[in-house]
Amino acid sequence: MTINNYLFTSESVSEGHPDKVCDRISDMVVDSYLSKDPVSRVACETLTTTNKVVLAGETRGPKIDKDELINKVRDCIKDIGYDQKGFSWKTANIETFLHEQSKDIAMGVDSKDNKDEGAGDQGIMFGFACKETEDLMPAPIYYSHKILRLMAEDRKNGTLKGIEPDSKSQVTMLYEKNKPVKVTSIVISTQHSKDIDQEKVRELIVPYIKKSIPENYLDQLNSKEIYINPTGQFIIGGPDGDTGLTGRKIIVDTYGGSAPHGGGAFSGKDPTKVDRSAAYAARYLAKNIVAAGVSEKCLIQLAYAIGVSKPLSIFIKLDEGDKLKVDKIKDIINKNFNLSPRGIREMLNLNNPIYEITSAYGHFGRKPGKSGEFSWEKTDKQDLFKL
Known about the structure:
This protein is an alpha+beta fold. The protein contains 11 helices and 13 strands.
């Protein structure tokens, strides 16, 4: 039996969340290598804790001096906004243990005889799009991101005072006939200075809810269902309050639980890793299919094997479940899109240093930029899918 009426919740975390600090630093490392050599290989993991940052992983490409990377780590921490006793860009102890990529992995994924190189690992990747928002994203995750992104912008430009970098949001929406009709509750937990109390925190934060979510979704929301720092004060935050690791916010990074996830994180990985590039390609296809008016929703799964260039399978699910449409779309994809690792990179210009900006507020539902960032959010192929 299909459930048409239900509550659904998604969460987001800010760039100052300890896991997101790690994602930012790992993606900075990716960009640093790609900016020097666009065919670099990078798999960088970052750990943060009280005033300490540790980098580890594998690289292949140009030599980058440790001190140069360490200075760039400090720049990341400074830009996020951390200059606190427990975590500061000035005083943090930063160590890097990056080393050369395994030759066994390189042998399996490098191109030979002018053929496409193989995928860097086995795995499944999902792409999703729906008509719940103008950027074709599920509404709960889209608005969860927007609240925190607007807070961060004003915190960093000095408009929002007394609020610190670490914060989380959660939006619950009522769906009727599978469409979002109203917000039923909102949770925002945000780090703040010791100089303001919880009443002041609420006064500062509630306006960002109204800036982020359309009025028609909020007009029935009871103020008692807006939870701001429900556990009380939140002064100690960031890596000082909780250890951070790269790649722990994979649902935040994608669709907020509205679609399946293959399990692979994005940050810290160069675009030869299909965990990242194939997930971007799947979103690109799904978004163009929905933009073309084929379906209200589209889910795509791509599957790869290490060392094999082409996907082992392509699964497509439309909102209407129309098999004839699915067969036509699959045929269009097979004829017009090269979904090998190299084909994806060339199609979406993924060898550019465009990844640091993706590390917070979601990899999807963002605006494509002039430098090639978020190229997978373009809908320039929708005409191909008009049936």
